[in-house]
Amino acid sequence: MKKRTRFLALMLATCMTVGMAACGSSEVKEETQNTEEKDETRTIVDGMDREVEIPEEVDSIVCLNVTSLRYTCYMQAQDLVVGVEDYEQKQSISRPYNYVNFDKFKDLPVVGNNGEHYIEEIITADPDVIMMSAIGNCDADDVQEKTGIPVVVVPGSDQMMDENVYKTFQIMGEVYHKEDRAEELISYLENIKKDLDSRTKNIPDEEKETVYVGGVSFKGQHGFEGTEANYAPFSAIYAKNLANETDQTGAFNVDLEQVLAWNPDVIFIDFNGMELIKQHYAENPDYYKQLKAVQEGKVYSQISFRSSASNLDTALTDTYYAGSVLYPEKFADIDPEEKANEIFEKLLGQKFYDVLKENGYEFRQVQIGE
Known about the structure:
Layout (H helix, E strand, L loop, with lengths): L1 H17 L1 H4 L1 H14 L2 E5 L5 E5 L5 E4 L3 H7 L6 E5 L10 H5 L1 H4 L4 E4 L2 E2 L1 H7 L3 E5 L6 H8 L3 E4 L8 H14 L2 H22 L9 E5 L11 E4 L2 H4 L4 E2 L8 E4 L2 H7 L3 E5 L3 H10 L1 H5 L2 H4 L3 E4 L9 H15 L9 H13 L4 H6 L12
Parallel strand pairs: 3-4, 3-7, 4-5, 7-8, 9-11, 9-13, 13-14
Antiparallel strand pairs: 1-2, 5-6, 10-12
């Protein structure tokens, strides 16, 4: 808005200097009309209940804080991005949205560093709107004041199908004029939720096996002790997650003797912690050999879904695989690999499970220490 006004003023001044004949009055009139159209604005209410005035047509954005760029990619709006945070310039298979769109992001200006916002670089990138996730350093008013660029806050989410996911899609749909895409994604997630409920919600607890997930990533990699209460893939299928019996919330390190006391029926291992678990097994094989799930070969993989917050797509695929392991009769019609490719294609436009598998990340039985 301001930049376009300045451009018009400069052009008019130039025309007055060299004479209207040189510029051509029709060109000035046309440029004036186009600029006026672009200067039209609208007001939206963002995720922090802030009223933000943005251009009617948003042609460029930068994304600040974790999940902002990820959800922009889910919204098929990655072509609007003109600046990224520094960690997006390294291709990472742990963040599928980054891996798929890396060629778009690798040479863009760096406008931040995982919560640190580079004001001068943002101004230089000159986006129409700054999209900022509430996860992290959410100094929206400060950034807006310093840059002179409207900042729209979205809730973001480190979970899987919570209200913040839906709200993020809705706000982005309004900003990007992609309301249909937002509704498509929300409807898809609601259908997944209904599907999972129909398969698992009414299974009596006494018919369920106990389950433990180890190697969960949070603030870095962790070994077998790294687990999570209310682990999203388990919660979505009403699994008996033993970590829920503690007073913890979210990811944490559990005492390994507690895992031995629980002696879970089924164990899942997050690939991110696999190497640490192998090392621990080499030093303490007798510990693992006491576990019933290890003895019975009931140890399975989970593809790491948390990297700079949660990847919604990977978490959903993990959920269906866990369901097929824990309730094979209820998921008899589901091929976890086909379902994974469907989910990735819906969110990212690509059957990404095949790429994961080529890189050693796949749904399979695990031999601890292999």
